[in-house]
Backbone:
């Protein structure tokens, strides 16, 4: 199942509101369960370099059904997933990407946010997910 | 100068309206004058393959400050720009990408549309540009 | 909705059977509705160059919800989609890729076959689709 | 020499069985001694991001004729192969990729598994290799 455009827009609107409250300039991306771009929004004066990071965070979150920061904990030097970011045309493994899971526990997409500190990026992503679902997947089964 | 997000959103909204009138399912991208993605919108049930085409059409239109279809006329076998689509990580040179030029004749960005016939793609792109500027650049000078 | 692995395996088994009947050595790929690889099978002595072609045919068919050969008719020099193969990291636009559409008219994936003449590639792809669905999409709506 | 499709299928079948016993959802890839994809299988609900990782693990294992985890020990910061993952369009250097060596000590291919912890990925890869060969190469000579 894929996130629909109404949900993607609602998530971006909520994320923008949170970004404005925090006084940040963000790039916000939503991808579907196939990691294909559904919607994207770059606030005026957001970093140009955040375009790709926001999209890659969203893709990374849906690729592995978990927050990007969780992957980053495992991919440090000496960690079990060191170097994983070389896969899938480049992952971003610090916070700011979150899965979007629907009421049936199905992974339907993900949101990725970039443009400020990773704490702010994560908070803005959370605000986006909160209006359309949750970020916690059941262990299994879940459908893609 | 770059298109701002308010103009990008207005262009996408107008383009969506026209797409709905035509009964089509479109991907719509807006890039700024640096060819960097500003906003993107994929209607439900639009072709997944149109994501990249819409973005590449917008980039192509701003790369050369002209409608994508104009470049396509020059890039046919035997034409002066044959093979130009191999540049810039891939161009799309058929209709559906249009520059966005502001009231001072400055190129501020471009819109790219993909998801139906090239005639429909072009019509939807035109509807988007119409609410925020024009597509005709003065010969020179114009600023990026 | 995505094709499941049982359907992907059934399609490949049927395609292999047809390939053997034709005395050909094929690469056969199945992707889901997000154009992500689900299953792949290379018969002994199939061309190594057909690996990428089979996968790209499957992706192309799902990207645009139509047989790859239909796109090829439109992408010739002078045609409306000339150069479309430069999108999406490379398309293959000759026959051998077919969408997989389920009983509800939903595009769930695609099959791509490469290794012989385009007529044989197409025939083998058809044999694969026949056991799990059809290749004809309703005009709209269909869901991805 | 290259692994044949019968062996590739046998390896995948054994790997799937082990994956099911472990309650995991895996992507499983087999490549030949030229590092070209022979067969691929994605279990329902496996991570989409594991497609590329499974394939890259298999390629990495055959590129250097050793388990991927062995390379990872050498590619840490300060290690002799630091950064090797930038070669060959991207390596994956944590466990889950194993060479397939035949009874004559010849490297005939490799298997790559991704979708769970690296311990589970490695165990599933081992189950696949066990039915078609071993993973230990003689020092030299061995043929490709």
Residues:
């Amino acid at each position: 199942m894929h996130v629909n455009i109404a949900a993607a827009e609602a998530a971006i609107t909520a994320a923008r509101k949170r970004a404005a409250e925090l006084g940040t300039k963000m790039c916000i991306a939503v991808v579907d369960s196939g990691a294909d771009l559904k919607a994207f929004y770059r606030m005026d004066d957001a970093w140009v370099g955040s375009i790709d990071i926001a999209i890659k965070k969203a893709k990374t979150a849906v690729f592995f059904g978990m927050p990007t920061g969780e992957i980053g904990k495992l991919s440090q030097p000496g960690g079990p997933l060191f170097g994983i970011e070389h896969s899938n045309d480049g992952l971003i493994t610090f916070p700011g990407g979150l899965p979007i899971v629907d009421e049936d526990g199905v992974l339907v997409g993900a949101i990725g946010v970039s443009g400020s500190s990773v704490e702010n990026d994560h908070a803005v992503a959370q605000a986006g997910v909160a209006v359309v679902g949750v970020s916690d997947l059941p262990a299994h089964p879940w459908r893609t």
